[in-house]
Design a protein that fits this description.
Elements: H1 5-12, H2 18-23, E1 28-31, H3 37-48, E2 54-57, H4 61-64, E3 71-75, E4 78-81, E5 86-89, H5 92-99, E6 112-116, H6 122-130, H7 139-153, H8 159-167, H9 170-177, H10 189-209, E7 213-216, E8 221-224, H11 226-233, H12 238-247, H13 254-263, H14 276-286, H15 300-313, H16 319-346, H17 349-364, H18 381-387, H19 393-400, H20 407-421, H21 426-438, E9 441-450, E10 455-458, E11 470-473, E12 477-487, E13 509-515, E14 520-527, E15 532-540, E16 546-556, E17 564-573
Parallel strand pairs: 1-2, 3-6, 11-17
Antiparallel strand pairs: 4-5, 7-8, 9-10, 9-12, 12-15, 13-14, 13-16, 16-17
Membrane topology: Multi-pass membrane protein
Organism: Brugia timori
Keywords: ATP-binding, Chaperone, Endoplasmic reticulum, Helicase, Hydrolase, Membrane, Nucleotide-binding, Transmembrane, Transmembrane helix
């Protein structure tokens, strides 16, 4: 340690990690994803400035940060893989990257790298370090996903195109140069060609099983199917959309969707380390949703389920679990968007609404059964009882006058009101009011329903006891036109306010038109709104005659408690005119 005591004490007061507080006075720093950003920055700065002499870090440090050292010690070349339940070797590229951190050109003429390995692997690593080592292709394992994306993009349209695609890859070169690596015994040109034919056939078969592509038997052409498009757009494994197609149901609840999300193939690789099955068992006991009795506690999907519950329940986790939780949450929104698209594809209204609610829950780290005001900092159940349990965020903002033009004056009055009504201090009241200001309120304006011949003005605030029915023709394409406006000082903000989510997220809005009585989803549109926006939502009237109540849902994918729904009463009669494509 080369720091004076006063500097050290000042630094330690800014740290939250207890282990780091303990090791820094001895000149030993730690660096891992479980630390907060400012803690990692402090450790990096101290090591670069040579104020600490030893850095203990995870393997990812070698890739993410440029902090060379005179001596690098790689303590083991294996890690525990929860999927296979055994220790497996680090990729050789990772080991090379780790030892590549040895050497500081501005300070040293030489450097030392030490690798601790089992004795039986010593010769392998000696050869690996001192002799040229070929780089092999890993394309075979991911080939169906690549081909699916190319078919969706239109660059591959037949099996012959797949063969040509492979012929232009690194895999093709290495296949003929080192066939034994790919499990090929017969190395004759004919056998290698036959191997490639089988690879293409298996690839196409996998995509057909996943309903990602359609084979046109007459022309032998490959056509992208809706599930294939969804997998490509959201960068998902084709097995994931196959899994969703088999597991999603027309009336899936939020709780069921949490289990489906955790069980999807995208989370196959979440690490389950040695003895973490015991930690998972302990977590399971304190979580609100329980796993099946026969659930494997050493499964990656069990861990994903528990990590998601912990996020929603604000359960404090150990460092490794925090890292895994962030990795899991990083992927969840694109997976949930794929779930939503599949629900839309099947016209499942209830499931689509549940998926959107789950998005809101994850963004704000709350359960949908929690009181909506619990997303406000420092608001507890006791404080909400004092304020009013029947209040929502829009109503509370209106009650405090935070939706008025003079924001600063309303803000001061709201803080004073909150101090009078509750036991929180001024700092907490200020933070709570500032959060309410950041919460968007969406206000719909004039709304009309039109076809090619006529326009109907819709009163979305009409009394539901005496609704006015609009006469519409069956199986006709109509268009709903209306304007929505965000209210508040942050109405032009594109990023969502998600203080409990670990990274920035773009705020999105979803408009759905559906019929609650039948559970049918008629149309869905995803969009972003800043300020005000004119919306045009096309949808086709059902063929069933008689009176129908269609509901327009305006929902956020990030904010909970501000969703709106408006009813459209229609009396559907026989179609009298031909459909018009102008709409």
């Amino acid at each position: 340690m080369t720091m004076i005591s006063l500097q050290l004490e000042q630094l330690i007061t800014t740290l939250k990690d207890e282990n780091l507080k303990l090791t820094l006075p001895f000149g030993v720093g730690m660096h891992h994803a479980g630390l907060q950003q400012h803690e990692r920055s402090i450790v990096e700065r101290l090591f670069v400035q040579k104020k600490i002499q030893v850095m203990v870090a995870t393997a990812t440090l070698a890739w993410g940060i440029n902090m060379p050292a005179h001596l690098v010690v790689v303590k083991g070349t294996e890690y525990y893989d929860g999927k296979t339940h055994k220790y497996i070797d680090f990729p050789v590229t990772d080991v090379l990257q780790m030892i590549g951190r040895a050497g500081r050109p501005q300070f040293d003429d030489s450097a030392v790298a030490v690798i601790y390995v089992q004795d039986i692997k010593k010769n392998f690593y000696k050869r690996f370090l001192y002799e040229p080592f070929p780089v092999e292709s890993s394309l075979l394992m991911a080939l169906p996903n690549h081909v699916n994306a190319e078919i969706y993009a239109g660059t591959i349209a037949s099996e012959q195109h797949v063969m040509e695609y492979i012929a232009n890859t690194y895999l093709y070169r290495r296949l003929f140069a080192n066939p034994s690596y790919y499990g090929i015994v017969d190395t004759t040109p004919e056998a290698l060609t036959q191997f490639l034919v089988e690879v293409v056939d298996n690839c196409i078969e996998e995509l057909v099983l996943s309903n990602c592509i359609i084979i046109n038997e007459d022309e032998q052409s490959l056509i992208s199917a809706p599930l294939g498009a969804i997998a490509s757009v959201y960068y998902l494994n084709h097995k994931t959309v196959r899994f969703f197609a088999s597991c999603l149901t027309p009336t899936a609840t939020v709780e069921e969707l949490i289990k489906v999300l955790a069980d999807c193939p995208e989370y196959d690789e979440i690490p389950v380390r040695h003895n973490e099955d015991q930690i998972n068992g302990h977590l399971q006991q304190i979580m609100p949703l329980k796993l099946p009795v026969d659930a494997a506690l050493d499964s990656s999907h069990t861990k994903a389920f528990l990590l998601l519950e912990a996020h929603l329940s604000h359960i404090k986790l150990m460092t490794d679990y925090i890292t895994d939780q962030r990795s899991m949450l990083d992927q969840c929104f694109r997976i949930l968007n794929a779930m939503l698209d599949i629900s839309i594809l099947h016209k499942w209204l209830s499931t689509a609404l549940s998926v959107i609610i789950l998005m809101q829950m994850i963004a704000q780290a709350v359960w949908h059964t929690d009181h909506p005001l619990l997303v406000v900092p420092h608001f507890s159940e006791e404080i909400i009882e004092r304020i009013g349990t029947d209040l929502t965020i829009p109503i509370l903002k209106n009650h405090f006058g935070l939706d008025k033009a003079n924001i600063e004056q309303a803000r001061k009055k709201a803080i004073k009101k909150l101090l009078d009504m509750t036991v929180i201090d001024e700092f907490q009241a200020t933070e709570a009011v500032d959060t309410l200001l950041k919460w968007p309120i969406l206000q719909p304006r004039k709304c009309v329903l039109c076809d090619t011949n006529q326009v109907f003005e819709i009163d979305y605030l009409q009394d539901e006891r005496w609704p006015k029915y609009i006469t519409a023709e069956s199986d006709m394409l109509y268009r709903m036109l209306f304007t929505v406006e965000l209210i508040g000082p942050y109405k032009f903000e594109t990023n969502a306010f998600c203080p409990r989510f670990h990274k920035e997220k773009t705020a999105g809005w979803i408009v759905i038109i559906g019929e609650k009585d039948t559970g049918e989803l008629l149309c869905c549109k995803k969009l972003s709104i800043t300020g005000s926006k004119q919306l045009s939502i096309p949808f086709r009237m059902p063929k069933r005659l008689g009176r129908h109540i269609f509901t327009t849902f305006i929902m956020s994918d990030s904010y909970i408690g501000i969703d709106q729904e408006y009813n459209l009463h229609c009396d559907i009669v026989e179609k009298k005119v031909s459909d018009n494509s102008i709409l």
